[in-house]
Amino acid sequence: MAIDLNTYPPPASSSPVVVEGKVGTGTQYNPSSRIEASSAGNFEADIVFLSNNPGAPDNGLMERMRITPGGTTVYGTMCTVPLAASIKTGGPSDPAVTNVSVGIGTATPRSAMEATVNAPGALGPVVTLTNTGGNANASAALDLNTYSPSATGTYNPSSRIEALDTGNYSNHIIFLANKPGAANSGLVETMRITTAGVGIGEENPAAALHITDPSNAPPGALAASDNGLLLGSNGTSNYKWIQSYGGPLGLNPMGNNVGVGTESPIAPLHLAAPALGNSNLPVGLIESNSSNNPSPRLGFVDTSLGANASAPVWFIDNSQDNFRIFRQPNAATAGAAWLTINNAGLISVAGDIVLTGADCAEQFDVTGAAPPEPGTVLVIDKEGYLRESSEAYDKKVAGVVSGAGEYRHGILLDGKPSDERRVPLALTGKVYCKVDAQYSPIEVGDLLTTSPTPGHAMKATEGARAFGSVIGKALRALEGGQGLVPILVSLQ
Fold this sequence. Notes:
- The protein is an all-beta fold.
- It folds into 4 domains: 2-107, no CATH class; 158-211; 296-352, no CATH class; 359-489, Head decoration protein D (Virus Head Decoration Protein, Chain: A, Beta Barrel), CATH 2.40.300.10.
- It is built from 1 helix and 36 strands.
- Strands 27, 28, 29, 30, 31, 32, 33, 34, 35 and 36 form a 10-stranded mixed β-sheet that branches.
- The relative contact order is 0.04.
- Mean pLDDT is 84; it is low at 14-27 and 77-97.
């Protein structure tokens, strides 16, 4: 049963026509369009839409759309439908028609499928794919093919975007692609997005970005058009890398501190040694194996004295196993080493050495219940240890403990670890000394010797007894009592 819709007079024809079992001559009926109900059996019917093929009024009817209980099928080169369960790209008798554009909400689709919704400031068109089964590992996917999938074996699209149920009302979004080599090599996961982060080669990302695969080393070079920043992993147990191409890599060029081994950097570059279980490992290491520049070096430049290229540069380097500090007038001009320490421990200095300390001291072992304090006069006991002085004009006098008052030693000799108690004894130079003026007022320039007061010096008034017991010369006066007086150490 059908309804014909004519938009022009059907043409006349001399072909015989059969109408209700009667044969005669007259018009061969070819309507311009028809809507037909076609029985599919089982008390079901298809609704079929047909129209005349273009070109002539009697080219014959061609099926354009069929509505069945299972869905809607549309044939033709361009169609616009609100919903279709399946869309075929050619009619049953027109296999040459291969391209279809489907518009949802638009009569002029600009691609194979376009959906439009007028929703200012709100969510626009949504395409929904639902797996009503749910539960862990349930999924729904969108396949994207750039070639015809293999007709044999398991269906293998060229790429897929899949939503995978985690079993906790959450999804992982997975991106997969066919392995190169053949059309059905099998899908491999390339990226996964979870609530924890993005994984590249990693199914369970533990950070915002987690990369484990593919395993490869940085390429040696890139084409100029591909230059940029690359991140990668050279295997789960090997090194991970960041490499820039076509230009330098800047860390925080706009500011903020960078920490290595610390989460709270307090300087532009803050290196901290984590607990690695090996005290021989350095916090940082500068290595060079270039034949053009075999010396690993660290440079310092003050740009307030000029631009980077013209300002003086100080370097610390290791040249042929010699540690050096040297200066260059600028980055392009060779300089000279100011300090060198060779592998035998020999120190060479190009200029003068200026020390802020006041005396030359040496470590000695001491006896007594407590170590003597700075400024104390010490003598040598029978065992070779030092102890606090307690006799006048004692020829066993050794010197004064360094470090009292405002003076500190400039050089310390024999500073080795020991199980004995040790103190630095001033051998020469300036040192503060405990003195007792009750025996005689002390004037600047007086020679000092040991006194009966423990650990104190006094003015040497007996020349014959003073020989061999003089500690040094007073640099400040003391009229009476006890106190600290700076002296010039000069054992006699």
